[in-house]
Request: fold
Amino acid sequence: MNGEGNSKDTEPISTALAEQAGTPTVGELAADQQRFLAVADRLTKAVKAVDTLLCAAIGTRCNPQDFVRHFAGGKESFYLQASGCRKIRGFFDIYMRDRRITVVPEKDGHYTYEVDGIAGSGFFDRMFGAHSTGGTQVDVFGSRSSNDPFFAKNDREPDQNDVKKAALANFEARAINGLIGTQNLTREDLKRFGIDPNFVTGVEHQTGSQGGGNPNLIADGSRKRMYAIWKDAQVADADAKSLLAAYGFAASGLVTRDKYNEIVSIFQGGPAKVKAKIAELKTVPTPPNTPEPDNGVDFS
Reply:
């Protein structure tokens, strides 16, 4: 400023002039291009390193039981479960901080355990050198409700410790899956990891609260209860599938309400009763248009 009250010294330049003044020079653009190419090269190498490490971690530590198969809306996908996440957590130096556990009361005496916190990867932090800007840290939320039919199988009262452990497992699995990208996987992804997708158990989801709005199909809670019953009765999964197929159901979520109690009663009778019923039903002609069992669908 040359003197007090000189408006020319304090008058701002126009937006157009400001934008022109901020335009990068040829030298700056060339320098930026070289820098960006170097960054892209590092990122490409980093992606390859992550993929190599992921294949090695899953291939050496995990098995099909560490994954779950989801089938909904005609689309199949695979996810790494909490058990598998724990097995490979150390490979990526996963850390979880500021974790908080809250119990939220619900109606009818039920409750929800909510877990929130921050998760990150020391491997990614070192790879991308982003400690100063938070690195790869992400906010994570997990929860489980005592109202979930899984906790009340065999008509027992939900155990609070079970609900809490499930919420923590949900938090951990969501954190690790989100960081390393092991959700929404395909069969080809699993094969690349050395996992046979045909041995991954799964869940078939029906759209809508009662089997896609079809009142004749059992609800998801009933399906889970049926699965828990045959497991408790020590019925082999293969025999359970065969029994459902003998009734004409390609998946547990397709069991109709009118047959549900009958099938549950057979499962409660144990392996011998299940095998006897399968043999009995095989002597009955199969009704027309009965869907064939999908061997790629499991009923867990």
In short: The first helix runs from residue 7 to 10. Strands lie at 67-72, 75-80, 94-105, 111-121, 138-145, 202-204.
